[in-house]
Amino acid sequence: MRIRKSFTAAVALGLLAVTAACSSGGGSSSGSKVINWWTWDPNQAQAYQLCAKAFEQANPGVTVKITQYDVVDYFTKLTAAFVAGDAPDAFQNSVQYFQAFAGQHQLLPLNSFISGSHFNMGQYSIGASEWKYTDGKQYALPMDWATAGIYYNKAMLASAGYTAKQVDSLTWNPQNGGTFGKMIARLTVDKSGVHGNQPGFNKSQIKTYGLGVMNSGDFIGQTTWMPLVASLGWRLGNTTMWPTQFNYSNPKFVQSMNWIRTQTGKGYSPPFGAFSSGSGQATVADYSLLGSGKVALTIGGSWEAATFDKLHGVKVGTAPTPEGPDGTRAMMSNSNGNNIWAGTKNPQLTWKWISYQESPACQTLAGKTGTFFPSIGSSMNAVTKSLAKQGVDLSVYNQALARHEIFNAEVYKNGAQMQQTEVALLEGFFEGQHNDSVFAQMQQQSQKILAGS
Questions:
Q1: How open is the CA angle 275-280-285, to the nearest 5 degrees?
Q2: From 187-201, 314-328, 377-391, the region with the lowest mean pLDDT
Q3: 354, HSE (Cβ side, Cα atoms, 13 Å)
């Protein structure tokens, strides 16, 4: 899944301090048969524990130690471990930090391992291309994929007069919002029971917002605004791999951001910071807002599907994101990567572990926990069937993948600096501190950051 929490300035500064692997310490002592693997995701830590047990049984004397750190601390700890020469043998990585780590020679190229073991790179349905560096080498295996969909309170939509079929065929444009905009207005209810599209609606006294949080400072917007603006044909970078600028001043993006701010101004969507602990802090989870009745519909991550399904007292439906003016749907996906640290003392054993993690057997076993979507097509199909028996319907996401409505996220340089700079500017727009001129500023800043070393 894409990392959604903001990282602290300490992370950004820590990344600048990283040097090339400076010690042979490694995550495993010389001659040891302990493999250290790190992740920030507690769900994946638990899921891969199942694979670790099977791997240990098949490889007597080998121990896989899985360590999970909170996402806010994860990259700071990983950076410090690089500098100390005591990093884990392998670890989960985000494309946001790929360039920094590969450029500083912290990652082991996997090409010789892939060819030497005849590893099947063709098994992946999505994500493999995201982990090739500028030198053309493969530095990670894709672990998962993630995109966005609509989650809605079935009772609230039925009460407002909508059917599931209507939610499945929503349209959107940045001028009047299309049928998506009309639905949001109808679903919004003030404390007197007046809907957003009715006379007498009081936007300062909201009981239920029609649309969840869309104005977070996430500069990529994967689970907020990206599916909307992408349906217009807009993409974040001027190229998919190693762009030289982000297209923030494009009129399609500017119009889309203004439409989102208008929804807040009308009272249809929460004002900036309404459900967060402050600027740069985590927003209350989509499922918490839907489960509490504070919102009727939200755009959320595919990885949240099982959680939405388990909400107490609320029946949740899942639908594809709206079509753009020409009938196009487009959702971003990114795959987290499985990297080997360049300083490991056990490269062959570590490869044996991550290549097992990246096998259909492990991906199917771990994926059935419902906490992530495997990048391997056969495993994704098996997971879909397994979760369907539990009442979790993933057909929306599988159909989007089959219809080629999902595109890979850009792979770019200097992710920590980009986040620190662009989030502050975008938040200022949603808070009303900046006008449209901020988007040209954001684009100029992206050019400087992407051109940096």
A1: 40
A2: 377-391
A3: 29
CB-CB contact of 225 with 255 (8 Å) = no
pLDDT of 32: 57
How many whole angstroms separate alpha carbon 141 and alpha carbon 75?
A: 19
Take residue 387 and report the two structure tokens written for it.
């979760």
How far does Cα 229 stand from its chain's mean position?
17
Is the pTM higher than 0.70? The answer reads yes
pLDDT of residue 95: 87
Write the DSSP symbol of residue 303: G
Residue at 192: amino acid letter: S
Q: Which residues on neighbouring strands pair with residue 297, listed in sequence order?
A: 152
Percent above pLDDT 90 for the chain: 74
Q: Which residues of 143-164 are buried (b: 16+ CB within 10 A; e: fewer)?
A: bbbbbbbbbbbeebbeebebee
Residue-averaged pLDDT of the chain: 89
Query: Which tokens in the block code for residue 111?
Result: 């090409």
What is the tens place of the pLDDT at every residue in 87-126? Answer: 999 999 998 899 899 999 999 999 999 999 999 999 999 8
d(CA 121, CA 113): 12
Look up residue 290 and give its two tokens.
Answer: 């839907």
Cα–Cα distances in angstroms (integers) from residue 109 to residues 85, 131, 139, in the given order:
18, 10, 5
Among 265, 288, 263, smallest CA distance to 185 is for 263
d(CA 424, CA 324): 28
End-to-end Cα, the chain, rounded Å: 27
Residue spans of alpha helices (H) in 240-359: 251-266, 286-291, 305-309, 347-357
Q: What are phi and psi of 171, to 5 degrees?
A: -120, 160
Dist. CA 270–CA 212, nearest whole Å = 7
Nearest CA-CA partner of 85 in 33, 29, 131, 40 = 29
How does residue 306 score in pLDDT terms, banded at 50, 70 and 90?
Answer: confident
Answer whether 386's CB lies under 8 Å from 159's CB: no
The stretch 215-238 carries a mean pLDDT of 94
CB 93 within 8 A of CB 336: yes
pLDDT tens for each residue of 318-328: 999 999 999 99
What three-state secondary structure class fits 406? strand
HSE (CB half, 13 Å, CA atoms) of 196?
26
